[in-house]
Design brief:
By secondary structure, the protein is mainly α. It contains 13 helices and no strands. Helix 10 runs antiparallel to helix 11 and helix 12 packs antiparallel against helix 13.
Amino acid sequence: MSIIRNTIKTFHPAYFAMVMSTGIISIASSLLGFKGIAYGLFCLNIVAYTIILSLQLLRVSLFWSNLYHDLSNPKLSLVFFTTVAATNVLGAQFVSVTDRPEVAKIFWYFGIFLWIIVSLSTFNILFIKCEQRIEVVLHGGWLIATVGTQSVAVLGGILAPKFGDAGSFVMFSSYVWWMIGTFLYLVLITLIIYRLVFFKISPDALVPPYWINMGALAITTLAGSILCISILKIEGPYKDFLGFTKGFTLFFWSFGTWWIPFLLIIGIWKYVFHKTPYKYNPLYWGMVFPLGMYTACTMRLSQAIQIPFIANISSYFIYAAYIAWSFIFISMIHSMVKAVTVKKAALKREEKIRQPQMIPVAKG
């Protein structure tokens, strides 16, 4: 029980990135015709989301002070947007993998609720309490705020044609979230590039958080592509937005593609040149998510702008996503087993120390 209690107390919000990564790779697999893999990952994701959400809710009720401490930590606070993204990605799976839009609508409503709570709490705490310098607190993980916001736009865009008469309002709302996410990206990436260029950064701090630089662009591309596709299904004034949306979406996809070689070079600089040892951290799921998201967004972009040859990129990129997911998943399981084993050994040592020592007494 002490192991479970400690797990809840120290639970990292970045574990929701596992649901994000698994979900988007499942969706990408479905788009590419790998239905068996897509469904298997979908089932796994339901289990993972249920466990992770339960642990987070237990932490809210049992260890609120620890959760609030994380919310007040500017290095960690925006990571809570993973709860929003995970909820909406799983909702998108219910549409893309199993065609259950009514269930997906429930996840979208819950995702909107989480987005309101997380966005208002995290940014207000940052505005009021953050007193640290930019080079101390800012990192690529801040772009999770963009990912969470765009996830609402993605699921809303998918579901808009399925809302009937209310579809026009859902479409408008999705455009609003797309614009908010775009604004957050442009502001935050400007600060992040400033941080990378003008302040020294240690190798240990690089790679996992900064892959979100590309992941945020990929989900922005996916949201724009889905809006383009859904515009043709929704009657109203949105056809006037089509040219603008296509051009802006292609802009973000191009920028995201440009990031890929830079991120690979940074990885080589960290692990090969500086020989930084690999140690599992839930933030590493932030490296898997962009690979799956880039695969899915490229497929959708090819459909939205009707340029089929770029879809060939997804046919190869999906295997990189599978390899990365498998490696991080195995690392996670190994890390969990090792942590439980170490904690059990520590508890046994404590019990031995607490036991009274039997001292033999000689007769006579």
